[in-house]
Design brief:
Subcellular location: Peroxisome membrane
Organism: Tinamus guttatus (White-throated tinamou)
Structural class: mainly alpha
Main location: membrane
Shape: globular
GO biological process, one term: peroxisome fission
Helix content: over 70%
Distance between the termini: 23 Å
Largest sheet: none
Strand content: under 5%
Radius of gyration: 22 Å
Protein name: Peroxisomal membrane protein 11A
Length: 227
Amino acid sequence: RATQYSCMLLSYLLEHKADKEKLVMKLKQLESSMSSGRKMFRLGNMVHAMVAARRTAQLPDVVPRFCLTASNVTRALYFVCDGVLWLRSVGLQPDADKQKWHNWATKFYYFSLLMNLARDWYEIYWRLEEAILKKRMKENSSWDKEDQELNCWKADSLPSFLLLLFQILKRHPPLLLDMVKNLCDLSGPLDTLGIYKTNSGVIGFCGLVSSLVGILTLASPHLKLKQ
């Protein structure tokens, strides 16, 4: 995946250089080969996604339970569409409508990412609530009501909120990495669905960052956000 998006980014950066036509063509061919290979390697991921959905359906907290289960189910549907596209690419299902299946795959993937981001925001939200509560508990009880209201207003101002958000993400690297990965992954479906058009350079860069985060969480499992 990292190789595929690196090729996409490099081909975008080099495509306007007059003496780089052959290199750009080779990069695009490698990108296409990597994309096709990844589709084949993902054929079993539908089962993995359904097993994950069954596991997350048992979570005690209702918000993560809903978000993660919905994400895993739609991700499984995405893998079904992806499998059909692979079958068509190798000639086993030549009559499949490529554009239709591609659009469905993109929509399922997009919804899965939105559910993941909703879960990330929920994790941030309750940590913000917890931090604000602890801060208010440390307030001097001798202050009068007006002083307390003024302090609360200051704590709820935008700079204070952003500072608190930064501190929370700094203290919880798995949450930060998961949010960065999901936000980067959004660039592809947003462009494909016409919600926010970009270019192959942006998609390649975001895909590369997302892939590197994925490699990092595989190499260091403690950095992966627990379900």
